[in-house]
# Entry
Amino acid sequence: MTWVLAVAVMIGSSPASAELLIRITEGADSAIPVAVVPFSESGAMPSGDKISSIVQDDLTMTGEFRPLPAEKMLSLPAKGDDVYFRDWRMLGQRYVLVGQLTRRGDKVEARYELFDVNREQRIMGATASSSVNSTRSLAHHISDRVYEAITGVPGAFSTKLAYVTLERSGDEPLYRLQVSDVDGKRARVRLESDEPILSPAWSPDARKLAYVSFETGKPAIYIHELSTGNRTRVADYRGLNSAPAWSDDGRSLLVTLSKDGNAEIYKLDIESGSLKRLTNHWSIDTEPMWDHTGDGFYFTSDRSGGPQIYHKASEDAEPRRITFGSRYNARPRPDNDGKYVYYVHQRDKSFHIARTNLKTEEETVLTRTDSDESPSVAPNGRMLIYATKQGGNSVLTVIAADGGAAYSLPASKGDVREPAWSPIVR
Amino acid sequence: MKMTAQHKALALVFSLGLIAGCSSTGDPVEDEAYGSVDQEGGSTVYGGDDEGGVSSSEMTEEQRRQAEERAERAEAEAMREITTFYFDFDTAEIKSEAREVLVAHARYLQANPGRDVRIEGHADERGTKEYNLALGERRANAIERFLIVNGASRGQMETISYGEEKPAVMGSDESSWAQNRRVELVFQ
# Structure
């Protein structure tokens, strides 16, 4: 059933061709003041962004931190012995991060320490290294550790984003499936096609993407192994083949097919290709996503007249309607611990991202932009990325999961849409 | 006053807000049976053949029937110039003004079993992409069912939904959206 595709489209790892730009639009009022002191350097360092400034940018983009500009610092300590808490207290800082970078052959080693200013305590100290060519990875790793030390929640800075860009030259559209760091840097094109590419979804090990491509003229679902570029076409039925969502064990996909008449949700066993039908209704059933237990799933159905979010507690349970707040609620994305489900929500004439607290059933509209779609929750549940319109183009915007701070990721040209936030891989 | 075939077809073209494949000036359908068109009276004066005028009272029953058939054919042909059908937001309901045109397409397909048509469903950009894929399919299916009921056979037709991926018009306003919520018939 599964087979490796003879490639009709360009699959690549071509270097960044449509790099995203980062634009921080808003920070939360309650942001924690933190001083990221520029790291000392011994030996030749690679050109480009400094590791400590990448860490500082990472913390800033969460909206949860307000880093102190280096020019306001009274001293630039590189190790704990040189940190004078009184100075940092005077500057109103809660935490101070210091570090030393050392070149060792083709590696860069970082030795870094985090201090709690009020308690005058070292709360973390560690070393980490990376090859000279991947110091951005090293920086994101340090950001993850710092974030976790302060908030108690794992950082998601080492994760990846998958998204689709669209450029039009005249009448010719060019779709590109790309993967970048969460700050939009190090973008690489993975697939290029003049037909639509949709719905990228990360495998649980973050090594593969499933997506929908119209490259043969019809929609089909593909699995794409990122390290090799090998692709397998796993669903190519008559009608719709859409909305893939991985199971936790990576062995099956929830998919939407219309081969039996109209859009229904099926579980597709990737290895054998066998299908189990999970919905059966004359209405549209689509956009499935497993819940945090892995037994049940959320989906969109218009069985009540317009699209609404439903939940099945198990594959065979009766669907239960979750959303009631407006006439259009679609594309559910539950978080990893079963607290919230996020979705596209129409209010008046605008489309926003909203979430429902699954315990209290309280609904909160999170965004103030008004053509919002494709929400994807960060694997640590603290941030949310979605697509919206800005000046006629589609851009990606990241907000705190409670609706607080925001930064946007416009493409250097054209549209960028369909973001998917990768899992954290340990 | 009874509208003539030409007027009716033209009126239909305009009332549907004009339509892929039709020139914007709405050129009258060319058919040798017709002479000049009396715009004010809204009737067609049959100018007859090359030799000169023949008054309508002198038409035989057979001639009258043939003329009527030709007129009907011309009307159907004019209607078949319309290949795009529009929908309201989040619906797949075929609008009443589209029905007559779709019947013309269905009869044509019935009469020409060798012709195939691809039915392409689309949605506007609002809402979610995957739901819109399903909505575009629902629209294409609605048109396909209508064509089957009116004489086309399933084997002549193939449906595909592009959802919101292939807008006819770029733009984020009601008029662009209205033009993008559509099904297009593409004859192969």
User: Anything to note?
Assistant: The longest strand of chain A covers residues 121-131. Confidence is low (pLDDT under 50) at residues 1-9, 12-18 of chain A.
